[in-house]
Amino acid sequence: MQRDPSAVVLVVAGGDTVDPALAERIGPVGHVIAADSGLHVADELGFTVDVVVGDFDSADPAALARDGLEIERHPRAKDQTDIVLALDRALDVGADSVVVVSGGGGRLDHALANLLVLAAPRYAAMCVRALIGDAEVTVVRDRHTMTGEPGSVVSLFAIDGPAHGVVTDGLRYPLRDEMLEPLSSRGVSNELAAPRATVALDDGVLLVVRPGGERRDSRAEDRSTTDEEVPA
């Protein structure tokens, strides 16, 4: 894949086999970080990995020995998942925008932890999006614009406290300067009512989840973060 130094940093996690066509949804890539066996997923997508991080309990040792690959090795008994290590590395290289890619599958507790950590305050300076199998998850701290086929499912989840001043446009069930509580199902199973929709909020953090299963163009056109971190 051609590199663009001004483009996103790609973080590739392990998981099930991915469709190579997924690479088309990622866009230009400037730097590729693999989390352990994400090295093999990156190969399936046609990306050349710059650095691989993790405890290497699942990556093929022969693949790790390839020329030009930087290895950041961590002990197996560690406090962070490999995805956290990869996101921290993205911070270290000065990423403004990160796309996390995974084929999905694996342990439910790991999957849940990795979804929640995307919205951690430490990553507030980066625009963070995840492509997990057919699904797409975007961390929204300010405003998010999406395009796709009307009827496509969109769910909104408040993370780490209430999301205040939530306004949507182009969704079937609109929100007008409202609050979404964490640990609530109110934002589940909304839908695109138009080919283009926006979600905005005044304060807080949302996970905008598009579970997939429909034919759609889901690449975000406008994602931004606030300068302030969300209190822990």
Report on this model:
The chain is α/β, with parallel strands linked by helices and 232 residues long. It has 4 helices and 15 strands. It has helices spanning 38-45, 61-64, 82-92, 108-117, and strands at 3-12, 29-35, 51-54, 70-73, 97-102, 127-132, 135-140, 143-147, 153-158, 163-169, 178-180, 190-191, 196-200, 206-210, 222-224. The strands form 2 sheets. Strands 4-3-2-1-5-6-7-14-9-12 form a 10-stranded mixed sheet. The longest helix has 11 residues, at 82-92. The radius of gyration is 17 Å and the shape is globular. Residues 215-232 have low confidence and may be disordered.
Topology overview:
Blueprint: E1 3-12, E2 29-35, H1 38-45, E3 51-54, H2 61-64, E4 70-73, H3 82-92, E5 97-102, H4 108-117, E6 127-132, E7 135-140, E8 143-147, E9 153-158, E10 163-169, E11 178-180, E12 190-191, E13 196-200, E14 206-210, E15 222-224
Parallel strand pairs: 1-2, 1-5, 2-3, 3-4, 5-6
Antiparallel strand pairs: 6-7, 7-14, 8-13, 8-15, 9-12, 9-14, 10-11, 10-13
Could you say which structural class the secondary elements and strand pairing correspond to?
Answer: alpha/beta
**Rg to the nearest angstrom?**
17 Å
As residue ranges, the low-confidence spans are 215-232
Helix content: 10-25%
Keywords:
alpha/beta; 232 residues; ten-stranded mixed β-sheet
Summary of the model, kept short:
By secondary structure, the protein is of the alpha/beta class.
